[in-house]
Predict the structure.
Amino acid sequence: MTLRVVVIGAGAMGRAWIRTVESDPEVELAGVADLDLDAADEAVAGRVPTARDGVALAMRTHADAIINVTVPAAHHPVTTEALFAGLPVLGEKPVAETVAQALSLVATAEVTGELFMVSQSRRYNAHLWALRAQARALGRPGLLTTEFFRAPRFGGFRDAMDHPLLLDMAIHPFDTARFVLDAEPVSVYCEEHNPPWSWYAGDAAATATFEMTGGVRYVYTGSWCSPGLETSWNGSWRLSAEHGSAVWNGDDPPVSSVPVTDGVADDPGVEIAGALRAFTHALRTGDVPMGEVHGNVMSLVMVEAAVRSASTGARVRVDDVLEHAYERAIAAEPRPEVREALHSWTSVREALKG
């Protein structure tokens, strides 16, 4: 039986999801919604129904799930409405606009019992899985680094953002670092600056040093206004570990100083197509997929902690970010059942383990 989905959001990324859904034989596009109804109509050219309200459209067309490709500010309200309507959700990153909203969505998924999975699409890369296998073979990790240097001229909202690199792009390598190291952030010190030739209003370059569980350090250095000799969109990676080192240029297979006999057991798929496949499999089997909301929140926490450190000039503890977000989530939550779920957590970190 095919999974019938409604895609909410008909911008560039929404259209990429529409193409991906229509290319997957196990998924059927039931409809497309966007506040700009003309954009929705143009995206599907009459192939499926369109509407401004995606959840209502899903109910009307008897869809099985929602794919939320709205702007970050709409992630929380749209996903909340869908989950309470009994619809599982596959959402674009970030999980929400703030960690407080992300914690609300964790509690909402618990209350409704519906699956909410975040498509952290760059995890679906066979070369990345090979790097992770190499990391395990190299023993205890000491230092993982990422260099990211690109010069895209997007125009639009990114050019006006306060923290364009950290808020819009860094979540990908931060999430990748968690995946490769199988570790969680403890604290971060981050500095931002804006080179004098930058076309961004906010700081477009940053260096962040994270302490991760187990004492390993993860260092990210990046710039979004660095023309010439650009890195891969995945960045350039180096791992220094107990028994050797591994490097990955972001595009080609990674290289390790120690041979790895056990590679990637299964093909993870490619980017959003891999995420869609994982979502479909989870709904059919009940397995917890990579990107399930409990396991995804820490990637956004790394972003929020780095922004706070860059803004204050101080080292920031992740537990402080979590506690502050937890208090804000409870204060802002209008639904009594979600508030009760939030209050029941004795530890935010433990709650995020699911």
Observations:
- The longest helix spans residues 293-312.
- The chain is about 40% helix and 20% strand.
- The chain has a mean pLDDT of 96.
